[in-house]
Every structure is written in C-alpha cells, then in structure tokens.
Amino acid sequence: MTGDQTPPAGWYPDEGVDAPAGQQRYWDGSAWTERTTAPTGPAYQAAVPQAPRNGLGIAALILGIVGVVIGIIPFFFWVAGILGVIGLILGFVGRGRAKRGEATNGTMALWGIITSAVAVVVSIVGLVILIAFADLSVEFWAGPEDTASPAAENTGSPDETSAPTQAQETAAPGAGEVDVLDLKVGDCLAESVPGGGEEVSSVQSVPCSEPHSEEVYAAVTLPEGDFPGEEAVVAQAEELCTAEFESFVGLPYEESALYLSYLTPTEESWSHGDREVVCTVYDPDGDTTGTLADANR
Q: pTM (2 decimals)?
C-alpha cells in the first residue's frame, strides 16, 4: 500500500523564485501561507578600526612653533600670545586623546604644549620690553622740561648763580609749603627765615605779587669736601650771598637799604649731599609786594 507523506506545519526555507536567501515561509500542514520571516544574517559583524585622531597634537605643535617665531618680531608679541594660548589648549586635549588611545602622537602633543608655552613667555617678555621702552621715551622727551628750572642750573662753582627773568617772576609758585631743598630763584616767602642757627625743613611760599617777607635772589653751591663746621659754612654763605646781591638788586650790599639772609646746609643734610646756600633779600621796614629785582635801593 502506498501514500503521500505530508510534512507537518512549521517554518521551512522559502524556495520561491524571488525569495531572498535565508527567508523562511510557514507551511500550515496543507499549503504554503503568506507568512514569511526576514532573512537572517551573521550573528555579528567585525568592528571597523578607527583612524587615530592626531589632528589636535599636530595643530598644537604648529601653533607653538609659529608663535615663537612671530614673538621674536618687534610689535607682534601679542600675536604670539594668542597662538600660544590656543596651542596650549589644543596640546593638552591632544595629549589626553593619546592617553586614552584615541591618538598616536602623544609626544608631538607634548612638544606642542612646550613650544606654545615658550610662545606665551616670549609674548610676555615683548610686552615688558614695550612698556619699558615707552617709559624711557617719556622720560627722554620730558627731560629737557624737567631740568629747565633755575635751581637745577646751580651745579657749578660757588660763583655760578642765576637771577630771575621777567618770565620767571610771573611764573612764581602759588601759596603753599615748600621744602627748603626745592627753593629756587624768584620764590617769595610769607615769613622771614629763622635766624640763630635754627634748623628749617620747609617754608611757606606765596606769589611775589602778594605781600611777602623775603625773596630768593640767588642759590650758590659750596665746595665739595668734609663738613667744614657751622661757622665756616655761615662765613662762606655770607660772602657768596653778598657777592650776588648787586647783580639782583642793582646796588652793592653796602649801599642798599635792603638786607640779605640765607639758608645753609646743616651737618646732617651735608652728609646727604646738600651743598646749596639759598640767599634771600628783604626790606627791614616791612613786607614787600612785587619783586625786588633791580630795585636799586
């Protein structure tokens, strides 16, 4: 006896003409149905290796080298600073990638960090040099104006003095306390210079157009050497101030109705280099308004 053996219901390879490889179709025990399964692929795929990410390390090295070269060029130090900072950032990031295995140029990134740091240092040095150069330029151009005062010119022999010009008289300082070491020809004093060897560190100055007690008419310099003693200093001051009196007032001191006074170095100020004697003239009858230059009395 013979008979057909029908396969049981289940999933079987789809043998249709247009069926893709690996697709299965369901047999319901009597006929093929429209139910199919998607083709199956391999259980896994091999991972595709990624190229090393070396770009940041290369960029850091390039920026560092360019920054150092540009930093040497005058007035371009600021560019070196910018490139150096960017190079440092890229270098540290690139170094981190190398440590994580994402890049293979860890040494290059390290050199990028070093050269970028040098570029930053060169930029700072350039800035310091520029500031110093600017300060020197200001001092150079301001120097002639700062040294043009009559008192600054009294650096020669005891006989070298200066009398105030009309411009100096009109440019006399306003009221205020002045250090005796800063007095100059043409300054007028509100009060008389103390006598009797009293030490004075500052005096009150007023415009010569206002009533005043004394006027500075000369500033003479004593010879260098050891402090000769107070009496010797006073004697030299009297002699030098008397010699300069006529050129300012217009008459010899012996013929004038005006009196002279002076401020001399003390032993302490002498040890600090003070050699200047400040000569002043005053009217014994009272305060004066205006200058006594060429008073002829």
A: 0.42
Greatest C-alpha distance within the chain: 176
Sign of the dihedral defined by the CA atoms of residues 101, 102, 105, 111, in that order: negative
* Count of C-beta atoms within a 10 Å radius of residue 260: 21
Consecutive H or E run containing 136: helix 106-146
Per-block mean pLDDT, blocks of 10 residues, the chain (297 long): 67 78 80 77 58 89 92 87 92 90 90 93 91 84 53 43 43 68 89 77 90 93 91 91 93 92 90 92 92 91
Q: Buried (b) or exposed (e) across 183-200, using 16+ Cβ within 10 A?
A: bbbbbbbbeebeeeeeee
E strands, the chain, in order? 10-13, 24-27, 32-37, 176-179, 188-189, 202-206, 214-221, 259-263, 276-282
Cα 292 from Cα 297, distance rounded (Å): 9
DSSP H or E stretch at residue 96: helix 77-99
